[in-house]
What does this fold into?
Amino acid sequence: MDDNLLQIQRGERFAFGRNWNAFADLVDEGRVHTATGSLRTALGVEDLAGRTFLDVGCGSGLFSLAAHRLGARVRSFDADAEAVESAARLRRTFAPGAAWTIEQGSILDGGYLAGLGAFDVVYAWGVLHHTGAMWRAFDASAGLVAPGGVLFTALYNDQGGESRVWTAVKRRYNRSGPLVRGALIAASAAYIHRSWPLVGLGRLLTGGSRPASPRARGMSRWHDMLDWVGGYPFEVSKPEQVIARARARGLDLLYLKTCGGGLGCNEYVLRRPIGSAGAREGAETAGDLAYLGGPRPQTPQGHPR
It folds into this structure.
């Protein structure tokens, strides 16, 4: 039995892979299209043809699939065996026969990382803060970025005391049975969406209606909620901390989308300049992503996990 499964059984870790494996049942071409568009927009590119893409903690595999659709040579890994199976399912369904490598591995395993080389895009969205060693995982991810390449990551925002409350909620969730877990999900959903009745009333009074739109990034509101309430280990950070640490490791900030100081993730696209030190040997870079337009400016806004 691997360490990841043991931690889940001891109530020390959320079953991330189980959650995303269930989400994979919902993935269709519409969700794939939405995920592909969001990745294209964030990176500021039309495609990733000829470029290498590493999905750190691939979860369901949806964004590995999106990168594949954009033409990248994709390598995915996750410490959770169920997440690896989920990504493999998506590959069988949507990209049979694709040259897309999927394997079990950990961003905290130096021996495993030593054999990876470096990549044009290192994608670690909503992953590093769940490792139990966020800054070590961040440093390891930064070391996998090829010269001219980027690290695209999203990390939970530090809300001070409120973040400590959520840490306690998540810890309790993973150490509890079904009844307590259900109560925590219901209470958390009520708190997070407490403004919805007022928003609905406002639309009713003004004659407006809720615009129909797909879930951001092609995700599922239910599975995102489970991931939020149960997602443990759990660490947080402030943008200035992330940017300073990135610069110390040879990465420049290209793009930042914050959650406005509230609940959620801050997104970063961090670029390693061509000719800079810090990347692992064996880089197969196809050039500087910034030359393809770079991430498009965007107004800071909340972003659901």
The chain has a mean pLDDT of 86. Residues 29-43 form the longest helix (15 residues).
